[in-house]
Design brief:
By secondary structure, the protein is an alpha/beta fold. It folds into two domains: 2-205, 3-Layer(aba) Sandwich (Rossmann fold), CATH 3.40.50.300; 220-480, no CATH class. The chain is built from 18 helices and twelve strands. It has helices at residues 2-8, 22-30, 74-85, 92-100, 107-117, 134-145, 165-175, 189-200, 207-240, 250-254, 256-288, 300-304, 311-316, 321-342, 350-366, 401-418, 442-456, 462-480; strands spanning 11-16, 51-57, 60-67, 121-126, 150-155, 178-182, 244-249, 294-295, 375-377, 381-383, 386-393, 427-428. The chain has a six-stranded mixed beta sheet with strand order 2-3-1-4-5-6, with helices on both faces. Strands 7, 9, 10 and 11 form a four-stranded antiparallel beta sheet that branches. A hairpin with a 2-residue loop joins strand 2 (51-57) and strand 3. Helix 3 (74-85) crosses helix 6 (134-145) and helix 4 (92-100) crosses helix 5. The longest helix is centred in the middle third of the chain and has 34 residues, at 207-240. It is elongated.
């Protein structure tokens, strides 16, 4: 029987007036931005039947939400139920007779009441910016008659409130066990988690399973962040080690116009490859966080347009001169310590001191100056048709380049986390000017600086990469908690 089936899994029917945001709440809560699964529309009556959306972990259904049709005739339906019951307050028996009654009259009300008669709790969604009218009061009364656990949700779409919000709260407080606020177009993970935890306050029968579900949701969120950090490490390692080359005839090198065309072609290839690495990372993030309407196309122009000599760029992304010098100095000192260890301490720490001074000085003097890319000629190659040389390019010499690249990526990660799944507009990932790296603690910058240096030199350093992964994981966690950056 349905009653026994429902009793095994906590179920909540999401109900309310048409176009109050029921489907958007479900889409954001369950991270579904696919209209084939949850249709979010401004068209009245878009949801015409009950749609079940289970939450499954390890093949087991832990909780289910049911998107229901909106109330269409609540005042008339309330009167019909009262007439059917007679004197007193109607209960489940009367509501069941109402639902099982013949004819299509009150079809939407009958369909939305079905899951409640089968044991589901109530998640009632209202828009507090709308005036509180009699039809909303009728909806509340009908839902109160079910006797099911009831949570009212003030869906502040876009943060909008209205003059009737206090009256909404007063009336909802008399008909529901609990009232909470939510914004289906802006809610982030912590707000979604708080909503799930609110269900614990109204649903005692399934408390153990609800608590277990919340633990699984939190654990899975942490696992997603770990996958995102791995993708970021891959991006930075591949981007900082990126080099492209082109073989030219000696005569082409001596003709300035030909060499210039070759350099332009090589630069184009470099930035396209760099954009490809970034695009793969961002696509992975969108997959991890279940976004389909955000686009992550790598844009080569976004890189060729970066001007690290620009004061505007320095004011937004990367480190300032002092931080860059300190990070480079600490990293250089760490490299010097390796020299001291290799000599059995005979250098008496001179390696660490000289390493720190040399690297810091280089960072200071190069900090505001950027030859666009390394441009090197390889050794002479002999072929049957004559002598040739290899023109090689990448990566940029400026020590701030890795930090700007990192900030550009973190800015996009923040955009991924801010995007609520209840939205249905398409958008592209782009840097929004938010800088994070200069707000890192100094020890984190030092760890990353050491690894960046190894990547730029093309030297694998597993220990430094493992430490960098942990540092980047911390940075992603701060972004998830809306810490660690400022709008520039």
């Amino acid at each position: 029987m349905k009653d026994r089936m429902e009793a095994e899994v906590p179920s909540f029917a999401v109900v309310g007036r048409v176009n109050m945001g029921k489907s958007a709440v479900i889409a954001t809560l369950l991270e579904i931005d696919d209209n084939e699964l949850v249709r979010v529309s401004a068209t009245p009556g878009e949801t015409t039947r009950c749609q079940v959306h289970p939450v499954v972990f390890d093949g087991r259904e832990c909780i289910r939400f049911i998107d229901t049709p909106g109330f269409s005739q609540p005042v008339e339906a309330m009167r019909a139920i009262q007439e059917l019951h007679g004197a007193g307050t109607p209960g489940l028996d009367t509501l069941r007779r109402f639902v099982e009654g013949r004819g299509e009259a009150f079809g939407d009300e009958k369909r939305l009441l079905g899951p409640l008669l089968d044991g589901a709790g109530v998640l009632y969604v209202v828009d507090p910016s709308r005036p509180l009218r009699d039809d909303f009061l009728a909806e509340m009364e009908i839902l109160r008659w079910t006797g099911r656990p009831r949570l009212a949700l003030l869906n502040r779409r876009g943060g909008a409130t209205g003059p009737d919000e206090e009256r909404w709260r007063e009336k909802l407080g008399g008909a529901f066990n609990l009232t909470r606020t939510f914004d289906a177009h802006r809610a982030r993970f912590e707000e979604r988690l708080r909503l799930l935890k609110s269900l614990l306050e109204i649903e005692e029968e399934h408390r153990d399973l609800l608590e277990r579900t919340i633990e699984l949701v939190q654990r899975e969120w942490g696992q997603r962040r770990e996958l995102a950090a791995e993708a970021l490490v891959d991006l930075l390692r591949d981007a900082l080690g990126l080099r492209v080359s082109l073989t030219l005839e000696e005569v082409d090198l001596r003709v300035e116009a030909r060499r210039r065309r070759a350099e332009e072609l090589l630069e184009k290839q470099y930035f396209e490859s760099l954009a490809g690495h970034e695009g793969r990372c961002f696509s992975k993030w969108l997959e991890i966080y279940r976004h389909h309407l955000l686009k992550a196309d790598g844009d080569a122009a976004a890189f060729s347009g970066i001007d690290l000599e620009s004061a505007e760029t320095w004011s937004k992304w990367g480190l300032d001169r002092g931080q860059l010098t300190l990070a480079a100095g600490i990293a250089g000192g760490a490299a010097g310590l390796a020299v001291d260890a290799a000599t059995g301490g005979l250098s008496h720490g001179a390696g660490a001191v000289l390493g720190a001074l040399g690297t810091a000085a280089a960072a200071w003097f190069k900090g505001g100056k950027l030859p666009d890319l390394r441009m090197d000629l390889g050794g002479k190659l002999t072929a049957g048709t004559g002598d040739r040389r290899q023109l090689r390019m990448g990566p940029p010499r400026n020590p701030n380049f890795p930090w700007v690249l990192l900030d550009g990526a973190l800015s996009r990660y923040a955009q991924v986390l801010r995007r609520a799944h209840g939205r249905r507009d398409e958008a592209r990932l782009k840097g929004d000017g938010t800088g994070f790296a200069r707000h890192f603690p100094s020890d984190r910058r030092a760890v990353l600086a050491e690894w960046f240096g190894a990547c730029l030199k093309g030297r694998a350093n597993p220990a430094a990469e493992a430490a960098a992964y942990e540092a980047l994981l911390e940075a992603l966690e701060e972004i998830a908690e809306e810490r660690g950056g400022t709008d520039g």
